[in-house]
Amino acid sequence: MATITASKNAFLHGKWSADDAARLYGLPDWGKGYFGITAAGTVGVMPDKSPDRQIDLMDLVGGLAERGIHTPVLVRFSGILEHRLREIRTAFDKAIADHGYQNQYSCVYPIKVNQQRHVCEEIAAVGKELKFGLEAGSKPELLAVLALSQGQDDMPIICNGFKDDEFIETVILATKLGRNIIPVVEKFTELELIVKYAQRYNVRPKIGVRVKLSSRGAGRWEASAGARSKFGLFVTEVLDALEYLKARGMADCLNMLHCHVGSQLFDIRQLKTAVNELTHIYTELVRLGAGMKIIDVGGGMGVDYDGSQSAWTSSINYTVDEYAQDIVYRIKTVCDDAGIAHPKIISESGRAMVAYHSVLVMNVLGKSQFQADPEMARIASDMKNEKEPPQPLLDLIDAWERLTERNALEVYHDALQARDEAMSLFSLGYMSLPMRAASERLFWSIGRKVLDIQSKKGGAELPEELQSLPEILSDIYFCNFSLFQSMPDSWAIDQLFPIMPIHRLGEEPTRRAILADITCDSDGKIDNFVDKRVEKKTLELHDLRPAQPLLFAQTGGTGGSSASGAGNGANGAGHAPAIAGTPIPYAPSRASPPSGYEPYYIGVFLLGAYQEILGDLHNLLGDTHAVHVSYNPEGGSMDSDIGGNWSIDEVVEGDTVKEVLQYVQFDTEDMCEAVRKDVERAIKLNRLTVAEGKSLLLFYEQGLDGYTYLEE
Asked: How far apart (Å, rounded) are the C-alpha atoms in residues 149 and 167?
């Protein structure tokens, strides 16, 4: 409980407060009521935005560890997922009532956003009540959606993407089965296939067509719309499609008009323009004899990742309510002017549905940092071994000694020149390695001291020559995760995700750092952080504390159970077995990692959309553990009903080493046999003893069954 006690004392007696931490990390802005800070200085998760129904994230991580589920771990909050769906439903219901709209709305979940079975099942279950649907963009997704919609014939199913004979035939047969399924024509040949199989099976299908609008989207995916978009038909082709269906007596089957303005649409003005154009096309198709009944505005509802509420790539300048109001109003106005009945409205708002509900928690393994103290005693000792100390080093010593608040910039310029001269001398062979090392330590110590002086001046902007120093002098915190597996969009398209420590928030962070993952790739780092459109290159973090081994005197029993309890505080027990009366090291499942530091945990938020399914196997680091958690005031999880206010509903164990090796066609039995043969050869050559060989083989086999990430 030491960490919690220290945090509470900081709140009571220190200058730093929970409000300061919330402002620093932007929780009120990007958290949207789902995340806050508890009185214990930890991140609190509020699945339905109620402060009275709050889950302590640090407590949860500790409870998972007691069950053998260690970080990195992806936590999915079922309550947030359900709340997001209900929030979208409520927003459109209100807009329909406000504008007197004479039809209904349905939100369709494109499972490509997150195809994990548990996520899809939860959405399908809640969607049954809310009259929401599912979208498939490929044959595998179509087969998954047909299973997910079992017993729900009214559930709308939209089929996007390119389609072949097998895809279309499956859709037509599903229609005959009774499913409310609509294939969307992306190219003209698909329409021919739909007609072919509809006639073969004597089915009157519901047909949608995607139109390429002249209106473009906004943001990274703006090319999804417009004349050069990948999918859809030009207006002339839409008219040809209608004539094709008329000639076969199927014009009444053309029921839906679809468009897609682009994912993560950050500017509401682009949406208004696109919906206006789409609705005009819709009314014209009705006038020309199409059996139109539905407008599908596609995806695009964005997520405010940085909390700036602005027209920027990592933000949005509208709310869910405004999004709904604008769509309903624009469609109603155009239809009323044309004297056309209001269509049913569908949106495919996958990102907005699932982004908020997933949080990745990772532990920090260690750090790399420049020392503020140049170790003058060591420098003096090294200089005694030199025939003559190099002049650049003497200049740097002089700069360090005369540095003051008044001459900080001047001294930095002198130090910069001396450092460059030192590097030149070393390259020419006129400076020893110890003298070069001393020069570097002095230069970076001067730089850090100059930055400290500048920071005391308040909000004054750094001079141009100093602006790169904060990034250069920042710490590197090494974290137990793979950027390419858990946050691929951060690497691939510079997507920002909110990141912050999940505990010690009652203490003011004193370090500035970038985050590095455990892959052996220089791109495996995060050096751009959320800060309301500002290019923030470092993250404020707490200094890592050296681990302090604790002792306790156990008088009997094993103390605690690793299989029970739902969390009873951020530093709960779970003691190792001991001989009665024998003092042994305190060994909870949250024991200090091999790095020699107390556990320090960082959370990455809003990861629910796309990240899991896009993650790759760089360095063969596989999927992390994933757990589904719900708020439960009575606590308990799975087979336990003890303590806490959360329940573990599902545990999806992360990939083992064996599994990821099999993904890339390694036969683990052959691998074990190859190592066994080498061990036997080494024993015969007296390189290994029999016992050592046995230990190596055991270690090898256990390693294949282990987690791909670093374990305590």
From this structure: 17
